[in-house]
Amino acid sequence: MLVYSRFSRYFLLSFLLVSCRLGGEAKPALENRIDFVPNEYVFSLTESLDESAIRTIFKDFPIEKLTEINARNHSYKISFLRDPGIEVLNEAIRKSGKVRFIERNSIYRKN
Q1: What is the three-class DSSP state of 98?
Q2: Measured on CA atoms in the order 88, 94, 97, 98, is the torsion positive or negative?
Q3: Which of 16, 29, 79, 82 is deepest in the core (most CB within 10 A)?
Q4: What's the CA gap between 101 and 73, in Å, rounded?
């Protein structure tokens, strides 16, 4: 009986240690997690414009790619070679008067 008792305690302890190790996978720290696609923004126009007119609005910022998301509400995704920052972009669109809003392209995650 003593051998069985020691074996069961050893087995139980080993099982608990292994299962804690397997279940305790490290998750990325919240402060190190990026919540948006770098250099990429989503924006909506107040009216329909062709690509050259859109590029004129963002003429001070080198554009890598411009993609239409929804033609009905004139929304686009824009990728810059270098990220100018949301504050600078907000100032540029305010001057143009043709952009309804601009925001970073957020990464949505399931909690």
Answers
A1: coil
A2: positive
A3: 79
A4: 12
C-alpha pair distances (Å), 24 with each of 15, 17, 30: 14, 11, 16
Query: From CA 105, how far away is CA 35, in angstroms rounded?
Result: 9
Global confidence as pTM? 0.68
Residues 13-70: pLDDT tens digits? 565 555 555 555 555 555 677 799 999 999 999 999 999 999 999 999 999 999 999 9
- More confident: 40 or 11: 40
Note the Cα 1 to chain centre separation in Å: 59
Q: Which amino acid is at 103?
A: E
The pLDDT, as a whole number, for residue 109 is 78
How far apart are the C-alpha atoms of 13 and 55, rounded to whole Å? 65
- Neighbouring C-beta atoms of residue 80, cutoff 10 Å: 18
Alpha carbons 69 and 87: distance in angstroms, whole number = 23
